[in-house]
């Protein structure tokens, strides 16, 4: 954008107004606020009218980025021919034509088309990753913002903003557009997503001199689109939207970048490369194996398996931002959960009041409305009928940023509960009776908030009792003040502890003309009810070897009470001091209270240092850092802040903690399916390569021709192999302990199973080949019998591979439990029958028809690989089942 103020002409259909104001963020930062508003033809207090918004949007467009059109399907298909091995086959076809071996040329060409088509249908893994983890994510995360229009504060989608709109910012929100700030109170913004600077930037509303305004990091009065509000609150006028924002330029560069491969994809690529190295050694001995050397696409199958898991989790209301996170859940052995909004509903309701002069009151009603009453000794307290209670309500109402409209809360739930309390007493109008002169916003570190108002100038303060009482030198007693003695402090402490043990969140209130000499007003008890089903989910997790740890900023009494509710009955507790380092953290500790964001991060790091694979759940700004550091960050979709969602790896759309159970179950099932696929892929490939290698070394004629090898290769990579990736999750898998993160996919047990299966396949196929090769001449019948034998072995091997990891017998799983597998096997068998009975395909594959007795003989022989596999499973059970991975202390909690 230009550095100067630009007035561009509106599009032709805007007849009444012909000029649309445009202002760059650089120029806006240099001008005083009133000049910026004048240049943008906007009213800071009244905002834009709806008609003006419509007019400006017609010129500027929506506040969003244009996603480039996806690559056409035909280009994706053509790209499959770029593979070096496909090019090798094309060269082979050309050589065959030059040598006038037209049959071979046609066969190889058909082979290329089949393989390229199969690879195209299987879909490029990067495309799947984008479609499942990225495109699905925004559909559940429509960003909202607060804007002033027609003189009213409205909540609207960020994409609806236009230059000139007035926007309000608060802690935890993402800046929806480039804003020139005209009000900023203790505002600190995290610009790391834009500038790379990890230290939050302090923002003001003061104009910046042009000489110091060259770099965007020096524009302290501009809040840039996409950055995150870490502290404070502010108001600003929109100067840049969509691609006309500073972040828009970054977005254009991001589109051109290709995402790096994940660690899981890299490990699977390495496995594929190791497998290919073995193949190319064989290729050096025999040209016909060049056809067999068509990529099995191991990384593609793994990615497809993960993508299907992500899609299943979307149906369960969980959005995964990164595919490998699904598999990582199978390793999770610790879940650190924030209490508020995660284990509990985060729908706060005041239930109890205690005044500083010893009066108790009960509060009825739930929700953010005026339904309910304040009762003291059975009598209703309304308005200012009780001075001590009304002073607490006044402080809670004035020292508050929440707004309730039409029973809908706009703000923090705790503050909403205080507004609802004022509504029940008819005092909700107190907010408008005072003008704020100064504000000290709440932060997770200080755990208190204060405002200074006029008439007369006085501070209202609310927050944690331990923090508020430090500022107090007196206490309120029936409208007067008395010195705060040690005995009174002990009395207030006992009352606070009593309310905490009842599971209430306790807030203290004070007021006064000086922050260091406040008058203590009393305590309010707020309940945050547990979420439905959380108690059962926690019990299931613990029984499955996953330790559940609760981390909260509440007091010890409240933490213990909530911990007892969820049956986290371990008696060990840890109160973490502000400067205390967590070293050699005991896994037995399950409840952490008075925890700050820095403490949460240290807890996660310490658990990781002692072998924990940590999943951290949360919904607030104070959870974001720990979510980012955890192996698996889980954010709440409805109540979670933008900061929290940005840091998380997975988002629970409906905020249901039970979804984590399904996610862990899915992760374990996906890992098992990957191992089952690897077992099938390797055993079949090793058998095919060994078969031809032995024939070559023993000077036998080739038992399979190039087209037959290709068909076998397609089966190895095709529907039967793919269907192993969608095997339904075993219901018992959640009861098994998490796998060790250091365990390799290729274990000693799996290697034994692979070698046994491949040996059975090789021996059986060689037996058929030797049995048919009696006249020492290769005939179509010989290769057809050998070919069909190997294909049938593949089908039975796939059947036995369905439950290799779980060691479940085939009849226990149910033949039709995986319908895709049934369809894939039936389709492969039908294809094989067409190859040996359909005349045009007989010419291509050089086969001939077999009798029913031949087929029955082959079915009986090839079923031996499944029988041997079942015997191995039975032996494993007799020896005590699968060898369990070493468990750590987390499973003992």
From TrEMBL:
User: What InterPro entries has UniProt attached to this entry?
Assistant: ATPase_P-typ_cation-transptr_C, ATPase_P-typ_cation-transptr_N, ATPase_P-typ_cyto_dom_N, ATPase_P-typ_P_site, ATPase_P-typ_TM_dom_sf, ATPase_P-typ_transduc_dom_A_sf, ATPase_P-type_domA, HAD-like_sf
Q: Tell me the SMART domains matching this sequence.
A: Cation_ATPase_N
Q: Member of which family? A: Belongs to the cation transport ATPase (P-type) (TC 3.A.3) family. Type IIA subfamily.
The record's annotation in PROSITE patterns points to: ATPASE_E1_E2 (PS00154)
Cellular component, GO annotation? Golgi apparatus; membrane
Say if the entry is tagged with keyword Ubl conjugation.
no
What EC number is given for this enzyme?
7.2.2.10
Extract the GO molecular function terms from the UniProt entry: ATP binding; ATP hydrolysis activity; metal ion binding; P-type calcium transporter activity
Q: Where does it reside?
A: Golgi apparatus, trans-Golgi network membrane; Membrane
Has the keyword Transport been applied to this entry?
yes
Relate the protein's function as given in its record.
Answer: Catalyzes the hydrolysis of ATP coupled with the transport of calcium.
Q: Which UniProt keywords apply?
A: ATP-binding, Calcium, Calcium transport, Golgi apparatus, Ion transport, Magnesium, Membrane, Metal-binding, Nucleotide-binding, Translocase, Transmembrane, Transmembrane helix, Transport
Protein name, as recorded: Calcium-transporting ATPase
Note the superkingdom of the native organism: Eukaryota
Q: Which organism is it from?
A: Sinocyclocheilus grahami (Dianchi golden-line fish)
Could you tell me the membrane topology recorded for this protein?
Answer: Multi-pass membrane protein
EC category:
translocase
Q: Where is this region: Disordered?
A: 193-212
Could you tell me what reaction this enzyme catalyses?
Answer: Ca(2+)(in) + ATP + H2O = Ca(2+)(out) + ADP + phosphate + H(+); Mn(2+)(in) + ATP + H2O = Mn(2+)(out) + ADP + phosphate + H(+)
Q: Kindly list the residue ranges recorded as spanning the membrane.
A: 85-102, 108-128, 275-292, 677-697, 750-770, 782-799, 820-838, 850-872
Domain Cation-transporting P-type ATPase N-terminal span(s) in chain numbering: 27-101
């Amino acid at each position: 954008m230009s550095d100067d103020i630009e007035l561009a002409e509106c599009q032709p259909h805007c007849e009444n107004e012909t000029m649309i104001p445009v202002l760059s963020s650089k120029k806006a930062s240099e001008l005083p606020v009133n000049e910026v508003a004048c240049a943008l033809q906007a009213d800071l207090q009244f905002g834009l009218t709806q008609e003006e918004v419509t007019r400006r949007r017609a010129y500027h467009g929506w506040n969003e980025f244009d996603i480039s059109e996806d690559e056409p399907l035909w280009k994706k298909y053509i790209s499959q021919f770029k593979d070096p091995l496909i090019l090798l086959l094309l060269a082979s076809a050309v050589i065959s034509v030059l040598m006038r071996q037209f049959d071979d040329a046609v066969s190889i060409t058909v082979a290329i088309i089949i393989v390229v088509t199969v690879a195209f249908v299987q879909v490029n893994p990067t495309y799947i990753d984008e479609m499942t983890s990225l495109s699905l994510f925004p559909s559940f995360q429509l960003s909202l913002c607060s804007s002033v229009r027609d003189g009213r504060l409205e909540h609207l989608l960020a994409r609806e903003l236009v230059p000139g709109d007035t926007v309000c910012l608060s802690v935890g929100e993402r800046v929806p557009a480039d804003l020139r700030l005209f009000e900023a109170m203790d505002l600190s913004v995290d610009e790391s997503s834009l500038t790379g600077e990890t230290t939050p930037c302090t923002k003001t509303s003061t104009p910046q001199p042009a000489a110091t305004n060259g770099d965007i990091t020096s524009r302290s009065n501009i809040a840039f689109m996409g950055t995150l509000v870490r502290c404070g609150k502010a108001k600003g006028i929109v100067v840049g939207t969509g691609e006309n924002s500073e972040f828009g330029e970054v977005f254009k560069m991001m589109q051109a970048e290709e995402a790096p491969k994940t660690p899981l994809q890299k490990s699977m690529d390495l496995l594929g490369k190791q497998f290919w190295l073995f193949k190319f050694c064989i290729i050096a001995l025999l040209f016909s194996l060049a056809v067999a050397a068509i990529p099995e696409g191991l990384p593609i199958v793994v990615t497809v398996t993960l993508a299907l898991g992500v899609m299943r989790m979307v149906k369960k209301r969980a959005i995964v931002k990164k595919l490998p996170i699904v598999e990582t859940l199978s390793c999770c052995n610790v879940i650190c959960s924030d209490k508020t909004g995660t284990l509990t509903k985060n729908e706060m309701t005041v239930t109890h009041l205690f005044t500083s002069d010893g009066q108790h009151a009960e509060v009825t009603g739930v929700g953010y409305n005026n339904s309910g009453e304040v009762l003291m000794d059975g009598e209703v307290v309304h308005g200012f009928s009780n001075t001590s209670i009304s002073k607490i309500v006044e402080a809670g109402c004035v020292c508050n940023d929440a707004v309730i409209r039409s029973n809908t809360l706009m703000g923090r739930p705790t503050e909403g509960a205080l507004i609802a309390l004022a509504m029940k007493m008819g005092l909700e109008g107190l907010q408008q009776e005072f003008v704020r002169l100064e504000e000290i916003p709440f932060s997770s570190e200080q755990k208190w908030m204060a405002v200074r108002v006029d008439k007369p100038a006085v501070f209202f303060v609310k927050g944690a009792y331990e923090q508020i009482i430090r500022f107090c030198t007196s206490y309120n007693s029936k409208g007067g003040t008395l010195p705060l003695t040690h005995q009174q402090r002990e009395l207030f402490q006992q009352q606070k502890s009593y309310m905490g043990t009842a599971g209430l969140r306790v807030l203290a209130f004070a007021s006064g003309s000086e922050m260091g000499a406040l008058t203590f007003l009393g305590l309010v008890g707020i309940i945050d009810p547990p979420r439905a089903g959380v108690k059962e989910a926690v019990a299931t997790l613990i029984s499955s070897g996953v330790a559940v740890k609760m981390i909260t900023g509440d007091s010890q009494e409240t933490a213990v009470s909530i911990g007892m509710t969820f049956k986290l009955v371990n008696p060990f507790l840890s109160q973490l001091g502000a400067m205390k380092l967590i070293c050699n953290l005991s896994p037995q500790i399950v409840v952490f209270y008075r925890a700050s964001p820095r403490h949460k991060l240290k807890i996660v790091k310490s658990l990781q240092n002692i072998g924990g694979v940590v999943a951290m759940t949360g919904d607030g700004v104070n959870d974001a850092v720990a979510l980012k550091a955890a192996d698996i960050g889980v954010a709440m979709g409805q109540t979670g802040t933008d900061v929290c969602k940005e840091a998380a790896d997975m988002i629970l759309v409906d905020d249901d903690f039970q979804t984590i159970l399904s996610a862990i179950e899915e992760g374990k099932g996906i890992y098992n399916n990957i191992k089952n696929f690897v077992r099938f892929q390797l055993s079949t490939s090793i058998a095919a390569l060994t078969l031809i290698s032995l024939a070559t070394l023993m000077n036998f004629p080739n038992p399979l021709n190039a087209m037959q090898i290709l068909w076998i290769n397609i089966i190895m990579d095709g529907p039967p192999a793919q269907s192993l990736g969608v095997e339904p999750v075993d219901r018992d898998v959640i009861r098994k302990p998490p796998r060790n993160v250091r365990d390799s996919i290729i274990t000693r047990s799996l290697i034994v199973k692979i070698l046994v299966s491949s040996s059975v396949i090789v021996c059986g196929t060689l037996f058929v080949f030797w049995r048919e090769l009696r006249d020492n001449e290769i005939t179509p019948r010989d290769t057809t019998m050998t070919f069909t034998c190997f294909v049938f072995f593949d089908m039975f091997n796939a059947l036995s591979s369905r439950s290799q990891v779980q060691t479940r017998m085939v009849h226990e799983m149910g033949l039709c439990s995986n319908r895709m597998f049934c369809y894939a096997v039936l389709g492969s068998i039908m294809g094989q029958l067409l190859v040996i009975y359909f005349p045009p395909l007989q010419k291509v594959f050089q086969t001939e028809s077999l009798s029913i007795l031949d087929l029955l003989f082959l079915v009986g022989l090839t079923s031996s690989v499944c029988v041997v596999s079942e015997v191995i499973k039975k032996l494993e059970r007799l020896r005590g089942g699968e060898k369990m991975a070493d468990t750590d202390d987390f499973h003992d909690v």
